[in-house]
Amino acid sequence: MFTRSLILNLFAVLLSTLLTEHITEAFVRGSTNVVQRTTIATNSAVTSLNAVAKKNAAAKKKKASTVKVKKEKVESVRKKEFVSKMAEELDITKADAEDSLICALELITSTLVDGKKVVFPGFGTFEPRPRNARKGRNPKTGDEIDIAASIGAGFSPAKALKDKLNGRE
């Protein structure tokens, strides 16, 4: 059978292994009070190790749940195809459908040029978005260049559109 001194020696080896792992983990985390951690009592060392293990497991679980979604290649619909589909849906000629589309795009453009928003409830909002002047670099030469202030067009989808895109109708 095991003697008391043998059991105490095994316990001491186990405890020193746990403390060594704890010190190593503290070092890896960049802890500044590694020396202080070596004087922890046995129960608190085990409790502390369990807390660290739980924290690491939670961090790994969180990291796994925030994996980026791969972008799939999206098929493009050209103007000609769009006009054909529009003509078919509205039961009008392709020429009339194209004229309607051109008219709608010109109206949106002229409204944006006037500095106004175009709001389509359930679809989204087109709006002019100013960009400040900034410094940039010529990628070929590396020279610093001035980029002038400008106005771009922005689109913000409505909640209904986002819900449809994500299958939450």
Keyword list:
HU Protein, Chain A, 3 domains, 3-stranded antiparallel beta sheet, about 55% helix, 5 strands, 6 helices, two-stranded antiparallel ribbon, about 170 residues, alpha+beta, extended
Report what the structure shows.
- The protein is an alpha+beta fold and 169 residues long.
- It folds into 3 domains: 4-59, no CATH class; 75-114, no CATH class; 115-169, HU Protein, Chain A, CATH 4.10.520.10.
- It is 55% helix and 16% strand.
- It is built from 6 helices and 5 strands, in the order αααααβββββα.
- It has helices at 4-29, 34-37, 42-65, 79-90, 94-113, 159-165; strands at 118-120, 124-131, 134-137, 144-147, 150-157.
- Strands 1-2-5 form a 3-stranded antiparallel sheet.
- Helix 1 packs across helix 3 and helix 4 crosses helix 5 (94-113).
- It is extended and about 65 Å long.
- The termini are far apart.
